[in-house]
């Protein structure tokens, strides 16, 4: 999360005036630098993000990645270059000589003559606050009805009808609780188990699964949210690739051949954005026969999601602005028409389909009041409505299914293979 | 956890030969060094653990703590002292001159002339593996019966009697799942929510609370376990104190005056150890009238626990070797008698009572088989018994209630005040 946010905040703050001491350097991607044949001191320029910093007495080692390759380029610099700004996540421009590396771990390294920090990444004052949202709740965030109810087992003697006086359920999302907290901490996230009593045997569903959820105050556009989502996906993936290369290699080699290239393709391209309305048009014009006929006002099915990602060249694609009638009461009304939509966004990825879901939240008291009234939820969500009475701010957030994320980056077909103790209908082993 | 374990593993590896270049230095505690009046270059020696390392171009800053004071002593050294061994958690002996600090953040600092690493703390190869144990389970780890049962809410249509085919509950402990994992990863831990359907309105109980639980293979004595527990408590507390001093100060100043001293007292003393049998003797000889009469074979109540801690001078105390009849089937039989005990351990702390509970696990197939048979659990725990058939090892573990830990270090009287969304009988707000 930190990485995502600080990358998002990065500002291009330095001039890009050419280095006066040398002839202009050839600009190379990390991939091209790594593959260079001529390593007899050619002067080059590489731009990218710092993936690791190792500071020794006289030498500073940086690993730079620009998304053109899963592998990073090692930069070797005199320790006089060392500064706080050369931190994980900072974007830099490095000029120097491409030389043969004395180490066996790489063929080529870049001997730095000049390092410019393009965008700072100070993770210290830009943190998301980690909140543990509750597992047992009296809310039903999604309004979906696929809830597990919680009651003391028959062995426990409690005189009242309900242990908690009210019906209590296992959480389907920490969103509403995060919204409470974002009203004080501005940017918050949770990482914890969530539950669906879905009678499904699919390769994408579990009864108990983990979600990363984030909520951000003072966010006014889906664009801002999507930027955080894309950065989160890319930064987390880069971190996994650089911290556990052997584990990833194992999956890519023995379970999902070709996944390495597919992942690289996702990382090096900017994610795409289409509207729900455009998505339906694409599906209608498709030559493929779908089990569920695509139509405006009807939810997208997995078969549709997978088609859309393929249609987009296997680059992850954000679908935005869904029909109001399909979405829960808390999503922000776009006040458009006649096809009435809300500011919702899903991220679809190759192989998996929906990975993230998010939205701007309805922060306007009267809009929310009417939506609740129409759904008959006014009484149950009075406390939530009250959040809009005292210091309400435009805000939004999203959730990412953690096991689906693992499926996506590792190329694992069945979600039950990325969690140690999977729970699904008919199965709760151990 | 890392800190706890690496401190545990620390080996006194260096000689303590006197430094030849200077006259013998006076040995000072950190507390005495901080309070020193004579700062005109007196030569001193300080021993303790490194709490932080800040490496700059020409200077190296260390903060050293030895438990004699909540505050750490700043050590300023030439960057030539810098080495990988000077890492968080390493124990060191520093000789040098005590001088007035130029910074306003402290009065005194130690100008290092010699730094000896007494015990290395290489956190890289000594990690506990973080496991997310499941929330929904078909086990009842404690055998206590105070379980929440989980079923799809009436709105969900599932034809079978049970969604999972078997009755399913909210976890009361991740221990059994951790035991599975410790059979492959040696040292594992989990940090997650656990549940009790306890009809209690006490200031120490929640229906949903967090536990840190650890499980360690190849552990053969309670002594080893207790060392990890004590180090975990002390290292975590030191980290909280050094990373969030303002938050702690807020609680100590406005909610729990005197707590700072009480905490310091806990940190600077070695925790005590008494047996359950000794504990009962102490309680029997006490002049205090207890609501529950202490007797061998009966569980200790909170009033007993609090008395024992006071009796021990408000130093945390481990109580070991509880009656076999009081404890679950998985705890290791001490094969003693006639008062038959198991290798269980609880840590009692001031203000709270029981904070940790742990035990050696019964790793011997035939012992476990008989215990299960006697409890009528053979069928339900066949999978657990099987763990003793294939590569069984002596092992043990413990759990620490996270909210009680916060109560203990912050001096918060009511457990409902250290969790954002407390759940207890009659209450499941939001």
Describe the structure.
2 copies of one chain form a homodimer. With 430 residues, chain A is α+β, with helices and mostly antiparallel strands. In chain A, 26% of the residues lie in helices and 28% in strands. Chain A has 11 helices and 17 strands. In chain A, the strands form 3 sheets. In chain A, strands 7-11-12-17-16-15-14-13 form an 8-stranded mixed β-sheet, with helices on both faces. The first copy, chain A, has a 5-stranded mixed β-barrel with strand order 2-3-4-6-5. The longest helix of chain A is centred in the middle third of the chain and has 22 residues, at 222-243. The two termini of chain A are 33 Å apart. The interface between A and B is large, with 60 and 60 residues.
Helix residue percentage of chain A: 25-40%
Number of strands of chain A: 17
The greatest inter-chain interface is formed by:
A-B, 60 and 60 residues
C-alpha geometry of chain A: globular
Q: Quick one: biggest sheet of chain A?
A: 8 strands, mixed
Assembly state:
homodimer
What is the gyration radius of chain A calculated from CA atoms?
24 Å
Question: What is the rounded distance between the termini of chain A?
Answer: 33 Å
Strand order, sheet with most strands of chain A: 7-11-12-17-16-15-14-13
Report the structural category of chain A: alpha+beta
Fraction in beta strands of chain A: 25-35%
């Amino acid at each position: 999360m930190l990485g995502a946010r600080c990358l998002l905040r990065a500002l291009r703050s330095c001039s890009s005036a050419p280095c006066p001491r040398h002839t202009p350097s050839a600009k190379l991607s990390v991939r091209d630098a790594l593959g260079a044949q001529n390593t007899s001191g050619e002067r080059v320029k590489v731009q990218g993000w710092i993936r690791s910093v190792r500071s020794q007495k006289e030498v500073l080692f940086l690993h730079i990645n620009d998304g053109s390759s899963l592998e990073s380029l090692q930069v070797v610099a005199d320790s006089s270059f060392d500064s706080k700004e050369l931190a994980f996540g900072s974007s830099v421009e490095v000029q120097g000589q491409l030389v043969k590396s004395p180490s066996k771990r790489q063929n080529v390294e870049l001997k730095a003559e000049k390092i410019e920090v393009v965008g700072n990444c100070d993770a210290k004052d830009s943190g998301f606050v980690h909140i543990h949202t509750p597992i047992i709740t009296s809310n039903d965030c999604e309004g979906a009805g696929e809830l597990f109810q919680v009651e003391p087992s028959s062995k426990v003697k409690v005189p009242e009808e309900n242990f908690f006086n009210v019906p209590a359920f296992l959480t389907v999302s920490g969103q509403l609780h995060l919204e409470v907290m974002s009203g004080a901490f501005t940017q918050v996230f949770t990482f914890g188990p969530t539950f669906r009593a879905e009678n499904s045997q699919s390769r994408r569903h579990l009864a108990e699964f983990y979600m990363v959820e984030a909520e951000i105050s003072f966010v006014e556009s889906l664009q801002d949210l999507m930027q955080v989502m894309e950065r989160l996906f890319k930064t987390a993936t880069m971190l996994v690739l650089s911290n556990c290369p052997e584990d990833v290699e194992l999956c890519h080699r023995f379970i999902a051949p070709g996944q390495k290239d597919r992942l690289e393709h996702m990382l090096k391209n900017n994610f795409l954005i289409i509207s729900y309305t455009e998505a339906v048009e694409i599906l209608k014009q498709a030559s493929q026969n779908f089990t569920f006929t695509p139509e405006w006002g009807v939810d997208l099915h997995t078969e549709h999601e997978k088609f859309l990602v393929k249609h987009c060249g296997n680059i992850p694609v954000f679908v935005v602005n869904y029909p109001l009638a399909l979405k829960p009461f808390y999503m922000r009304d776009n006040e458009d028409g006649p096809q009435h939509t809300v500011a919702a966004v899903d991220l679809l990825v190759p192989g998996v389909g929906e990975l993230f879901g998010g939205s701007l939240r309805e922060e306007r008291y009267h809009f929310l009041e009417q939506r609740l009234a129409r759904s008959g939820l006014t009484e149950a969500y009075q406390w939530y409505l009250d959040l809009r009475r005292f210091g309400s701010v435009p805000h939004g957030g999203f959730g990412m299914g953690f096991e689906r994320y693992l499926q996506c980056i590792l190329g694992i077909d069945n979600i039950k293979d990325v969690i140690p103790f999977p729970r699904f209908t008919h199965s709760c082993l151990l």
